[in-house]
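Please check this record.
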Amino acid sequence: MKRFIPDSIFARTFFVLIIGLAISHTISIALYVSDRSNTLVSIDGRHIGDRVALTERIIRLSPPPNRPGMVSRISDDIFQVTWTPTANVAADEKTSPRTLEVQKAIGEHLDPDENRMIRIRDMGMQPLVLNSADEPENIAMVMVSMTLPDQSWLNFVVPLRAPTPLWTLRYILSMAVMLIAIAGFSAIVVHQLTRPLARFASASKKLGVDMDSKDIPEKGAMEIRQASKAFNQMHRRIKRFVEDRTQMIAAISHDLGTPISRMRLRAEFVEDEEQRQKMLADLSDMEKMVSDTLSFARDEAILEPMVKVDFRALAQRVCDDIGDSGYNIEFAIGDVLIPYQCRPAAMRRALSNLIENAAKYGKIAHVNLVGDCPCIILQIDDEGPGIPQHLQEEIFEPFFRIENSRSRDTGGTGLGMTVARSIIKAHGGDISLKNRAEGGLRMEIKLPVPKV
């Protein structure tokens, strides 16, 4: 059922307006047609009743020998009159709304003391030629029989206007014109109302990728302006927070550099060679941790501009560089151009961290690029021991290390995976981990490709 419901605010609002107006227009036309038909039946019934009563009075006041001739002269193709000894309408004939109006109009012209009998039958639609040059036309007919003072009967066959049907050509044209006009105006109005929302959504997506994006215009309805203003304030606060944090970490790193350098100089005066080497190694680890932390903070600030590159060539270059460093890499990247808007240096660093980790700790890295779908998918498989399910999210935390597979002798600081996911998420993508059934770990990177 949900697939038949429009997904956008524009489509939903547009269809609600059109359907609502179409229903209200149909109900209005139906009420109008019903009232018009009832009014016409009432008016026409009274008109026929007045004519029947007038004809009855003329025939009643005429001598019986003259009545056949007068009846013949009064009758025509539309208004037929006969004078008979018995009634043409049965006594048990049921009345209808049309016949009731005729009977009521005739009764108003008769003296109630005379106790005259009136019988009316609704004959329904009957073919009638209104003009000799025209085809027969179906018209509602009514037959009336009423007594004269001498107990003879006057019989009338008269036409009545039939109620106007709802589904006429005029109504269909009226509905079509109304829908076309309302659809045009509704599309313009709804588009003007929803355009700020589309701009707002686009800016929200862009904020996660480009911290230096411009503020969105504070235009539209009051609620939209308030939301845009709040969004711009949030954007500026987040940007200021990231800049302040980066400056703070840079200051801490700078301040730590001086005591580390002094400690390195003092370590040179330690006479015990083994202790001196251990102290120098610890100081090197501290320097690398400070350097990596500062680099991570700068990557979070996202200072590199966006550039369109060939993602396949970028991944190929990363695999070649890691393979030249002595790691075992197998890749199936293909040779199809995959245009992608990204920060090339940051993206190379993220891919390098992930692929190098797979090759270093999983014996070999199998890199497979899938580009024939709405997003870019890069799969990195290894043949290592894998990662327990409960640790697959924790390895992205800063400085987290799995001791049984990594040690400080490797030079790692526990920021590689954190930096990689931070860069991937900054491009609107994500990383997922899964232990393979045949052994090893699969890292899958999904990067959305913006529509041109």
Remarks:
- Residues 222-285 form one domain.
- Residues 9-61 form the longest helix (53 residues).
- The longest strand covers residues 118-128.
- The chain has three domains: 11-160, 222-285, 304-448.
